[in-house]
């Protein structure tokens, strides 16, 4: 049985998100339609469902860096634009997609509110939300406040079929201007009791939520440092919560942030402990550059003037400087990296 026997193609919402999360997947940040299409192309080629997400900064970029964003207006409309683009195109590529938004810290809640309004408006017309899911990241707040705000939003999200991802404990490193490189070591490893507190509160509202618990994971790729990835901790969370919730071996849907730079063994352990989603952004950012960089370096002599290259002073260079040619090279290397990430997660030939 394939994934398409369980869920349709296109952007999934409601219980279909949970059905798909019973298959672990790679999570891909997009910043433009070029990146989004390359991810969809990769997913189609390896017959894999895929998660596409926009960060607050990525969403603003999707709308265009020339727009003001002082009230999160560019991040809101950019995320909405990306969601509509992915809704249209995922059907054409024939893959199921979870359309998600990434970390939203307390100071960015106006961004979250804007997306939620778009979801509610879409729900009125189509009986489902625009996005599949959103992430709230109040991990910098005290636990009680974190859970309280998540519960408040989830009460609004659950009735229209939105999945909630929340974070407890801190993902280290730096992403999208949020710098956790100085976070103290203990907060980089979430305790099972904290995960249980989240579970008990949110499961009273609905079953469609996931927890990004910290296990020494870090955004970005760095030289090996003193923070150690401990994916076995996630198994401890499952055991702890299962011990209090009869009839379930793995009650938690867990999320792996900062997947770039992780070994195949670490990924496999995380997946076996109930990770349903791994974010890979840094590695795919680099992959997008590689194709473009190599093309520009190789064709340097054809990119200096519009006319004239080593083959003759009157030879036109249009077929080298056309963005469809060199941007395409980045799309190809990006798509290859997406395929590798999906293979690492055992997420190929699933449709
Ligand atoms: Zn993250």
Automatic annotation (TrEMBL):
Pfam families: F_bP_aldolase. One of its GO terms (molecular function) is fructose-bisphosphate aldolase activity. Its cofactor is Zn(2+). Pathway: Carbohydrate degradation; glycolysis; D-glyceraldehyde 3-phosphate and glycerone phosphate from D-glucose: step 4/4. Belongs to the class II fructose-bisphosphate aldolase family. Its EC number is 4.1.2.13. This is Fructose-bisphosphate aldolase. One of its GO terms (cellular component) is cytosol. The lineage of its organism: Eukaryota, Fungi, Dikarya, Basidiomycota, Agaricomycotina.
């Amino acid at each position: 049985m394939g994934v398409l026997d369980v869920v349709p193609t296109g952007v999934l919402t409601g219980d279909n998100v949970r059905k798909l999360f019973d298959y672990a997947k790679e999570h891909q940040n997009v910043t433009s339609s070029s990146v989004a299409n390359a991810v969809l192309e990769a997913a189609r080629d390896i017959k894999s469902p895929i998660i596409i997400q926009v960060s607050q900064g990525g969403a603003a970029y999707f709308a265009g860096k020339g727009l003001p964003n002082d009230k999160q207006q560019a991040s809101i409309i950019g995320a909405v634009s990306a969601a509509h683009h992915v809704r249209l195109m995922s059907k054409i590529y024939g893959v199921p997609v979870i359309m998600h938004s990434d970390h939203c810290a307390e100071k960015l809640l106006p961004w979250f509110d804007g997306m939620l309004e778009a979801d509610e408006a879409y729900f009125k017309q189509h009986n489902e939300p625009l996005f599949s899911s959103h992430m709230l990241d109040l991990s910098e707040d005290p636990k009680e406040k974190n859970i309280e705000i998540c519960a408040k939003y989830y009460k609004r999200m659950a009735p229209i079929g939105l999945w909630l991802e929340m974070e407890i404990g801190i993902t280290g490193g730096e992403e999208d201007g949020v710098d956790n490189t100085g976070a103290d070591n203990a907060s980089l490893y979430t305790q099972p009791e904290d995960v249980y507190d989240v579970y008990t509160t949110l499961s009273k509202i609905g079953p469609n939520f996931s927890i990004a618990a910290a296990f020494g994971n870090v955004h970005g790729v760095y030289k090996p440092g003193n923070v150690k990835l401990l994916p076995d901790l996630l198994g401890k969370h499952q055991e702890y919560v299962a011990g209090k919730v009869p009839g379930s071996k793995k009650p938690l849907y867990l999320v792996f942030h900062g997947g770039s730079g992780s070994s195949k063994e670490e990924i496999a352990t995380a997946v076996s402990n109930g990770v349903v989603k791994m974010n890979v952004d840094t590695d795919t950012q680099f992959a997008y550059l590689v194709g473009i960089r190599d093309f520009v370096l190789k064709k340097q002599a054809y990119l200096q003037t519009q006319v004239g290259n080593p083959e003759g002073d009157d030879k036109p260079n249009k077929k080298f400087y056309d963005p469809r040619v060199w941007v395409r090279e980045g799309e190809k290397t990006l798509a290859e990296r997406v395929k590798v990430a999906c293979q690492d997660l055992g997420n190929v030939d699933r449709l």
